[in-house]
Amino acid sequence: MSKTCICPPSYEGTFKPENFTHIYTCKQGETITIRPAYKEDYDGILRMYDLYEPKESAQGLPPADPRRRKDLILRILNDSLSIVAEIEGFIAGHAGLIDIDPGIRSELLIVIHQNFQNRGIGSAMVELLLKLARHCRYHSIWMTVDVSNRKIIKVCRKHGFKFVGPFDSEREMELILE
C-alpha cells in the first residue's frame, strides 16, 4: 500500500518522495530521516506540536489552545509542501513551503522540537525544502523570523537567505531562487 504525500492538490504526482529523502547520522549518533510528510504522519506531527514547549514562543507557534493548534496544523498540512524529520519513529521536526503566489513564491515554516535541536535538523530540512522548491519552480521563498532566533537565522543565511524590510523584533528574510 503506497503512502500519500501531504501537499496541495496542484503538486500531487509532480515528484517522487523517494527522490526527496535525506538520511544522516547526527553527532549524537542518532539516525535522522528528513522526508516528505505523508497523510499517515498527521498524528505524529500533531504530537510533536503538542509536546513542543514553550507554546506560542516562535511567533505564536504552536498555539497554546489544543483546538486552535489542531486547526492550524491541519490548515498548514493542507496548504503546504510539508516535510518531517523523523528519529526512531518520532516526528522531531516539521517544515513546509506555504504558497503565497502558487508556484511562484512561498513562505517557509520550520519547527523543531526543543529536545531535538542542535542535531543539524534545521539545516537538513531547509536544504530539502530548497530542493523541492527548485523542483516545483518557485522563484522565491520568504519568511519572518524573530531576531532572537539566532539558530534559524544562521541556517537560513548559510543557504542564501537575506534580510529584507525594516529592522524590528521580527525580520523578513527572502531567498531568490535561480
Structural notes for this entry:
The chain is α+β, with helices and mostly antiparallel strands. It has a single domain, classed as Gcn5-related N-acetyltransferase (GNAT) (Aminopeptidase, 3-Layer(aba) Sandwich), CATH 3.40.630. 27% of the residues lie in helices and 31% in strands. It is built from four helices and eight strands. Helix 1 crosses helix 2. The longest helix is centred in the C-terminal third of the chain and has 15 residues.
What are its keywords?
178 residues; alpha+beta; 8-stranded mixed sheet; 8 strands; 31% strand
The CATH class designation is: Alpha Beta
The count of β-strands is 8
Summed up, the helix count is 4
Instruction: Output the radius of gyration.
Output: 15 Å
Morphology call: globular
Distance between the termini: 37 Å
Helicity, as a percent range: 25-40%
Low-confidence stretches: none
Number of domains: 1
CATH superfamily: Gcn5-related N-acetyltransferase (GNAT)
- Structural class computed from helices and strand pairing: alpha+beta
Summarize the structure.
The chain is an alpha+beta fold and 178 residues long.
